[in-house]
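Morning. Coffee machine broken again, so started the prediction first thing and wrote up yesterday's gels while waiting. Chain of 290 residues, entered below exactly as on the submission form.
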Amino acid sequence: KKQAEKAVHQKKEQSKTKCRKARRRHINLVEEFNRRQRKNIWLETHIWHAKRFHMVKKWGYCLGDSPTEKSYRACYRAMTKHCLLQDLSYYCCLELKGKENELLKQLARICSIDTGLTFQEACCLSGRFEGSLNLYRADRYPEDLLGPVTFIWKPRDGSESRQLWIWVHPALKQDILRELKAIFQCTEPEEMCITEPVTTSVQEEKQVEVVTSLGNKRKKEDKEGEKAVPVKKIIGDGTRDPFQSYSWIAQTTGIAISDRSMEILRYRLIGPLSHSVLTETLKAASVQTV
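Came back before lunch.
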């Protein structure tokens, strides 16, 4: 009897290490993708860069810094003769919605015509071209510089309401966002982020796993008891807490400010064949008019 009890205690626990075939399943790859980006947000091209670049952690993101191979000549050749693509999705996008006159009136307080283009430049206001300028604190030009930004207007659709996207560096996002909310008096949160918390304990993860019987495969189930299918999820972004509100609205003017970071991807194409690549990649949609 003692020998039998001793053998039971010495019996090895079932190994939780999955073989390579199991790890490469789509459901497991997605779970690993979500788990490994809890502390530092990944870009859509992270896996491609991680295999070829030295990764660094900056501004809450995990970015490719320098290539592991001698690819400088190849990059230079692509820029001069072909096409080189850069992933700039870590830049933060701030979206402004409201009446055009009200937007231009308040935006004029944080920029100056003495520095060049402004938000009301005709070529940029039509939505055909992207503009760039330096932002200052309200009515403080030439002092209290906030930093450079790029912007693009959504083309007019016949209504008074306009839509403006401002792209800022993640290191400057909080200061610029705070200044925009101050000049437009956007204090009421319009929408709240409902993503899952960033830190999840190991015990909580184990509670999700349901072991039906010894020797059977472990399957994850949702609250309704059905097999759960994980999806890739972006937990907030590198500059925002996942439970922080990401949209604000002004009760008096109706101006709405939304944080669209990591929702709109941004790529830069460099080289003489950039337009050819875009032409072959993007196809015009067929628009049916009644």
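The longest strand covers residues 145-153. Going to sketch it on the whiteboard this afternoon.
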